[in-house]
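Preliminary data (for renewal application), T4K complex.
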Amino acid sequence: MMKASEPIYVTRPFLPPLEEFNEYLEQIWESKKLTNKGPYHELFEKKLAEYLNVKYISLFSNGTLALISALQALRITGEVITTPFSFVATTHALNWNGIKPVFCDVDPATYNLDPKKIEAAITPRTTAILPVHVYGNPCDVTAIQEIAGTYGLKVIYDACHAFGVTLDGNSILNFGDLSVLSFHATKVFTTFEGGAIICHDETTKKRIDFLKNFGFAGETTVVAPGINAKMNEFQAALGVLQLKYVGQCIQKRKDIVTLYRHNLRDVPGITYLEDIPLVGHNYAHFPILIDKDIFDKSRDDVYNALKNRNIFTRRYFYPLISQFPTYRGLESANSNNLPVAEDITQKVLCLPIYPDLDLDIALNIVKEIKIN
Ligand code: T4K
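Predicted structure:
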């Protein structure tokens, strides 16, 4: 197979036509309102809540600061049960709040926190659960809520991959106490950088809004040691415009997933997740698992062979967060505690997926993998 002339990355952001965005920029230049609850911020917050079918949204400058602030908003302390199979920011958000992460294993059917294993990780110091809808696939929200209810725990979902995902017609963001989104360049929906917290009542939204603006509750009143995590007008204006296109972007992603699944079906040693009944997926990522014993080549062999062909897949999420030096000393980071996550992290490879990816190129990527 020929080396691809242009590098193919695991993702590329979708951007609207520049001339359309220029109209928004002209407004910003004219008003000189750049940040601090400008008109685009207010408009985007409203339109986004409508689009996602959620009640309250607070916009943030990025997903990590939104996660950190979400934990602050609910005054989470002590220990929090979380997944090691995620982007490192999930656990870092706990660390920044002085909270001890307790890693719990994942479910092989979804790669998400396994509800059957959560109870064993609860201690008298546990205050919350921080699951991740990894790759946009919903967690078992019913089982998690039941455990949280029994033990009096809060649930904050890291929904950074889950923009637009629904469960039985309801936004996945409506589950748990809070959900956090990311609008980073690598996400299904991007505002360059950006993020949001979804909550279910006005009082909580107010507190979140204080927290992202230094704790200001009025011109001269500071009610919390808040941070600066505000979304600016440039990001918000892009967000408004992106809403027009996100539906068609998800459809194009679906076409690519359909092609990948069709052409990788029945390849011995390669497995992938199917659509989950009742779930409206966003096709944020396309992870495959490569079993070296059956496929003959390891995940890293395939990763390197593709790289030599100018195709840059990614090993999201390898290594596990629990294997990073900052966290590997924790008792819960022990591999014996996380056998399923350990297995997946050794096998997983995320294939390129983004709206502008040509279906012929996707087909060539599959052929490359099969040749290996
Ligand atoms: N929780 C979860 C579960 C997350 O996945 C993330 C972020 C967060 C929390 C935190 O949210 P934010 O604070 O980021 O809003 C990327 C992203 O930096 C990170 O946002 C994302 N998760 C993570 C999964 O992936 P890298 O280091 O892999 O990104 P990078 O720069 O290597 O980009 C990957 C590919 O994307 C590039 O090869 C090409 C393409 N790309 C990337 C950028 C940044 C572009 O085409 N244009 C771009 O501007 O971490």
